[in-house]
């Protein structure tokens, strides 16, 4: 500020000198009046009223007025004096900056950078430590670090074993009217399973990060010890922890209302080969439950399955992310709804990557979701973002079998091969709506397999299936059966009924003639029960795609699909521009 004042006064005085000379000049060279530097009349008046008597500048000005004003070189000299005055003022300011060490330590000034460099500096200065600091405790919750009464407090430093403390606090509150437990920011090390026996809510901090960390990755669970109802896990970070809820063979109604929301599953340490393959999250024989806005991460040391569901009723899996490249997360904070949630989550994921030295490629999934014998299930608006770098056998982004009344809509799928191990696989089920999914360089694969184990939930073929409005992108293997929309019945035992294909779009990249490729394949089965409509087209054209039928004659339906279906899915597929791994 001082430097600015000195500079300002010096410039004003220099300008004042020039204008005074102009006003008083009446000699040989009448230069006329100069236009004022300032447009602000008030500011000019202030300058005019300033007195410079008794100053060196005053006598210098008189000298120029009386002795040199009639000189034909006056204009040039006056310009030089003005220029030198400004340079000296600037010089004075820089010297003061370099030498300043007085009482008021202003510290280093933020340098002026090119935009990219300055942004990086700001990011480094503003990145918080989400594991340290304090959090306000929401009303009505028991703080694990200050539980009160005779309960021992958790430490949350990542070194002290907090297993027994957390178990005692949960046991104390579960099933009561005050059953909410709050985990402030910190690392809570656990060395054994944490069992839940009654209704309870476990809340992590929203402003920071609360990590529950396994001493042995994927060997420790948070689970229910008996049939339970009304469980909530929210805003928690599970480091090598598996979360499992099941009805214990007492039927789905015995365990219900289980909600897992806005949690992150990852591992900061390498797991053993046997533990590393274990599933991060499971729901078995329960009902009326939900899995919302969670993130599942796996690196090359823990290749396996994210989530698994079996014999559930009325479970929703909505808005989750499976697999991320942690060095490229900008898209996550601007393209995914709700934006405010994912913007905060992006910053915390970047913090986790640095804090735990996580590998950037966190997409090592055999599969993101297994479903078996589930009823009335919704799988909607999830991002299945597998890594193409696994070089291992894959078992589909989603593997659905034995389903009854299932909606698979608005999901984004990429990173699985364009072959028989990739994409979305659905087999031996009924009442499936598979609509408005964006499938990037992998396929949608329908199967009717032989029921060798005589599972009662496996339908003999497919029944009442609608494949509508999905967007396929084909790059690596365009026009192949396994990279497209296909049905396959390898055992000739399926009994299919009422399968409809409509409004699917096929975008084939890298070809000057995309219409040469076959996009819908029907192999074996009863072709008369597979209804393919003419609105299945090549991207950007009205041209119906080529259809390949084995054991039947290729043909399109002459009429349109039901208007009710069109109305139900009157929106676009969930397209995202995610950078490659």
From TrEMBL:
Organism: Stylophora pistillata
Protein name, as recorded: Rhamnogalacturonase A/B/Epimerase-like pectate lyase domain-containing protein
Keywords: Signal
Signal peptide: 1-21
Origin superkingdom: Eukaryota
Domain Rhamnogalacturonase A/B/Epimerase-like pectate lyase span(s) in chain numbering: 154-313
InterPro entries hit by this protein: Pectin_lyas_fold, Pectin_lyase_fold/virulence, RHGA/B-epi-like_pectate_lyase
